[in-house]
Design goal:
The chain is mainly alpha-helical. It has a domain of 78 residues. 48% of the residues lie in helices and 8% in strands. A two-stranded antiparallel ribbon has the order 1-2. It is globular.
């Protein structure tokens, strides 16, 4: 497992909790407000740890799925309206087998970060 995958695995529990909060929320405004609160708290904690532990930004660029998020989270940049993106569901690819009897489709992750708005059973 690569270091990038290890970082994504650490984030997976938090993303699941965020997904639960999003799915159980009331109005869209309440959901967005909750996501802003969560993002603000997470960014503040990330800035604190990065500042006091002297975390190298270059190392962070190698560990995250979206490099453009690193500097805004650390307070060295800003998010732009164009920085909204869809996290696609895992793709599929065909795997060749030695026998010609059948082909199987194996899920291949399109991105490392799990899909935020997928149902718990994995559907998008």
């Amino acid at each position: 497992m690569t270091r990038k995958h290890e970082a994504a695995a650490l984030a997976a529990r938090g993303i699941d909790a965020i997904r639960d909060a999003y799915l159980t929320g009331g109005s869209d405004a309440q959901r967005v407000a909750a996501l802003i609160e969560i993002a603000g708290a997470a960014a503040a904690l990330a800035r604190t740890v990065a500042r006091f532990r002297h975390v190298d930004r270059v190392e962070l660029f190698e560990l995250v799925s979206r490099r453009s998020d690193v500097l805004p989270v650390l307070g060295r940049g800003q998010w732009l309206p164009t920085m909204t993106y869809h996290v696609p569901a895992p793709g599929k690819r065909r795997v060749r087998r030695r026998s010609n009897t059948s082909t199987a489709e194996v899920p291949v992750p399109a991105v490392i970060q799990p899909e935020l708005f997928a149902d718990v059973d994995g559907a998008a």
